[in-house]
Amino acid sequence: MAKGDEDPRNPFDARKDFVSGLGDAAGARIREAVDASKESFEELKKKSLEEIYNDSRDWIRKNPGKSVLGGLAVGFLLGRIFRRR
To answer: What is the C-alpha to C-alpha distance for residues 70 and 74, in angstroms, rounded to an integer?
Structure first.
């Protein structure tokens, strides 16, 4: 069978197109995320260390649960990385 001749009874052809579409969509989402992170980094470079500290402190005060969970996650990961074998 030639490359362009797809068997309409073959369910894998439709799945192949679907998966290909997912890859394109994922690539677009990743590019959007990279662009957003670049913008955030540029804004961060414009701030002074004191402004960053104050923003962080305010965020932690507004989100104590997320802060504790984030600290636990970082501690767990560091413990896994530096543990003795």
So the answer is: 6
Question: Cβ–Cβ contacts within 10 Å for residue 18, how many?
Answer: 9
- State which residues form the domain around 73: 49-85
| Cα dihedral across residues 82, 66, 64, 53: positive or negative | positive
Q: How confident is the model over 8-40, as pLDDT tens digits?
A: 566 666 666 666 777 777 888 888 888 889 888
Q: How far is CA 43 from CA 4, 34, 68, in A?
A: 49, 14, 26
Q: State how far Cα 21 lies from the chain centre.
A: 20
Is the domain of 83 the same as that of 56?
yes
- Predicted structure pTM score: 0.48
Residue 85, in any domain of the structure: yes
